[in-house]
Amino acid sequence: MLIAGAGLIVLTTYPYLATGIAYRDRDNGLSYILFLMGVAVWNGLFAAQALDPRPIVKGFFFSIATLGAVLAGLGWLLFASTASSTPFLDRRRLVYRVVALLAGIDITLAITTPTHSLYWTVTATPSVSLAFTDIVPNVGYWLHTVFLTALFGAGATLFGRAWQNGTDVAYTRLYTLAGFTTAAAILGSSVLLSGTTSIAPLAAGSLTTIGWIQAQQKRYLRLPRPYRWLNNLLR
């Protein structure tokens, strides 16, 4: 079920990307595109673990899915901090530089973890019964979890402040709830399941969906014909 859900999110990338491109000059459109691409990679490579029973292949897909997760977290924070409805982020440039530096370090270490095992160790025994890779988490894995949880929690907090101020209430409320849900899903899945079986990629997909619905309701673009029926259902 998780694999099917992740695959569905990847399939929705096209209309969502069309939304982002049309929305790029408004507010935080470019941030939405980065967020969307991160979520797509996260879900796509998360689901790809089921394609091959070999631990080394599953571990490779898991590493790239981690890259997508970090890009999604970075995109989400940029999306939240550049929205017109959220309050201005103090020392924004400094925050962006620090977060970008940490994201770069996190991605580099996660992808190269087979050479140093600072993040995790993949269990060597292949199993056709396990759809996802089986890992033994190390200290870097927990630091990655804290960093990713903080990114989604910070973005949700910004929308929460906007919700408290009564700004664009319908969407700031949805972003706040879905953002904190995603942060909780990341933390909970990492602690209880070592991140291999996780609802976090699907939860992040709900945030891109809210952005798409918001753009449709505000009539920022005309949908490609095959997707107009879905827009009609949302009205």
TrEMBL record:
Residues 7-199 form the Histidine kinase N-terminal 7TM region domain. InterPro entries: HisKA_7TM. It holds the Pfam family HisKA_7TM. The keyword Magnesium does not apply. The keyword Manganese does not apply. Keywords: Membrane, Transmembrane, Transmembrane helix. The chain crosses the membrane at residues 30-48, 60-82, 94-111, 141-162, 174-193, 199-215. This is Histidine kinase N-terminal 7TM region domain-containing protein.
